[in-house]
């Protein structure tokens, strides 16, 4: 979608005077803009200001975090200054990414003519997502971020999106203020981002649990049958599961359970089971924590050495987060049965060990604030945080349908986090 011809509509008519400088909002040009965009990215912190800052290395591809979405666009804000001799000085000072997909926003019950019990069916909406909004520290408080958001929302509307949402750290006051105060978004959901370091030793997986790797077809069948009515469930889940970044979907069942395929599983599931998929963010971007003291770095190194030398002690250790590190995203977590959280915990141990083999620094997942997995999944509080999702209705001419205004709906027990947007 980056080369969609939309560039012709992004011209000087979007510019505005800023002292003697003109600001132009236009589409990102991968041939000429990459290095200048990376410079802006490197100058911006991710998350709230503080002693420690999280930086993202996009591995030379500024569009990497939206590239796998069905439709996407990246815009840049460029200052154009006339040097007085006919020459123009251009500088990229901001950027924004956006993507559009179809997701579940609620459910309705089917009408049966045969007398069978009514079944819940998903209600879909076309949803847009804003991410990666950056403005150079030297060009903030000039309205550039607002211009980028409005231009991106125009593209959303032109492509039929009914709602737009953003995700930000709940403690990121400037970002929250921009979207809720100036852009018309309202606070919507507060999922928890749970982060766990990958140790030098393996985590034990219960010998009462068998972990089965599912084919993409079996994974899709189970997800659509059991999770399609969950908020934010992507209608193109098949595209997610077949993506090369998806390392697999895994099913935890009681030891001794005989797998006969997804249809048999759906018709006669075990009492307790859990499912999870793993997304390889390591090949998309890498993270780095900067601003740490020598004492903190030394302590982290000591924990790694002890863990590596004495793995049988199973000592908690901190990976090399003060240099670029990769992560695996665990998504689609869920299950059934009174003991399903234990099965989910077994899947987490399996995923940790997989990340260890792939030399990842951390594993992360994101769950609803109402989900019992929030307390069951192992994580480090010092690395985890509360996310804030804000939503906006892009037009009032859409039918409310079976759900009504999604903004006014109550949160469900679970939420489906699309790994393509993490």
TrEMBL record:
One MF term in the entry's GO annotations: acyltransferase activity, transferring groups other than amino-acyl groups
Q: What Pfam families has UniProt attached to this entry?
A: Acetyltransf_1
Domain of life, source organism: Eukaryota
Q: Which UniProt keywords apply?
A: Acyltransferase, Transferase
Q: Which InterPro entries match?
A: Acyl_CoA_acyltransferase, GNAT_dom, Plant_NAT
Transcription regulation among the record's keywords?
no
Query: In what residue span(s) does the N-acetyltransferase domain sit?
Result: 23-204
Keyword check for Transferase, yes or no: yes
Q: Which family does it belong to?
A: Belongs to the acetyltransferase family.
UniProt protein name: N-acetyltransferase domain-containing protein
- Species this chain originates from: Mikania micrantha (bitter vine)
The taxonomy runs: Eukaryota, Viridiplantae, Streptophyta, Embryophyta, Tracheophyta
